[in-house]
Amino acid sequence: MARRFPIRTLTPTIGAVVENADLSKPLEHEEIAEIRAALLAHKVIFFEDQQLTPTEQRDFAARFGALHTHPLYPGVPEAPELFILDNHSGNPTDNDAWHTDVTFIETPLGAVLHARVLPPDGGDTLWANMQAAFEALSRPLADFLSTLDAVHDFARGFPARGVVAKGAGEEKHARAVEEHPPVVHPVVRTHPETGADGLFVNFGFTSKIAGLRRKESDALLEFLFAHVQKPEFQVRWKWTPNAVAFWDNRITQHYAVNDYLPQRRVMHRATILGDRPFHRSRRT
Questions:
Q1: Choice among 86, 101, 153, 197 that is catalytic
Q2: Active-site residue flag, 88
Q3: Around Cβ 197, how many Cβ atoms within 10 Å?
Q4: Each residue of 35-72: pLDDT tens digit?
Q5: Which of 68, 152, 189, 254 is flagged as catalytic?
Q6: What is the pLDDT of residues 104-157, one digit of tens each?
Q7: CB–CB of 123/283 below 8 Å?
Q8: Which of 58, 70, 99, 268 is catalytic?
Q9: pLDDT in tens, 220-237
Q10: Residue 99: active-site member
Q11: Is 248 among the residues known to form the active site?
Q12: Whole-structure pTM value
């Protein structure tokens, strides 16, 4: 069957633009399957010039799974499953660090981000391929990491003194911390659809490797947090008005470049839920 949406690859490792798709319209099952295949192949995919309402963005994201409602960020009134990232001089960004979204929950899958307001310059986002990062490790280290679990902590990513916590208010933040106790995920995650293994620790939320002494854990995490930043694993996306990014949180990390203040940057994000992370050697 002929491909409905041509694919323009951005790097050999990660990233592609899906062309000729109109995400504002209900897509056929075959079209959704084609987009899913592109996501699995390229880890993050982009759609340019998408004139989407919040409900249309929500409905597109929901074709790939149930949606997560963020406990701190403000929601979009007409589609509360989406939340608003509105950064400017009075509300600086807090996501200018490598992270994978919402690994503080049991079942993270992916996210759909729509550019609503962009600064004149800057505000790019980088994504990194965690399969490539894992495969670049020595075999003895890769084998060792595959036996380990790590703790992911909401309070690490959203500390009480942080920008997002202050914006949400002390009571809402305290309730969110109580409702999101630390969770444990494998350090190396097997992708449930492709079968590929990838690193699944991130600076944003991973606080400790279970079973190791604190100094051992800190040293190993420091190495891994630096390792995933190698340019060979990355794609850098320069946003254009109304562009959409759709990425797979099961196999990527990303970084929002904080170089545009005091200009304003507004994004709407839908976060998609998936399955519980596992490693092939320990699945029951």
A1: 101
A2: no
A3: 22
A4: 999 999 999 999 999 999 999 999 999 999 999 989 88
A5: 254
A6: 999 989 999 999 999 999 999 999 999 999 999 999 999 999 999 999 998 898
A7: no
A8: 99
A9: 999 999 999 999 999 999
A10: yes
A11: no
A12: 0.94
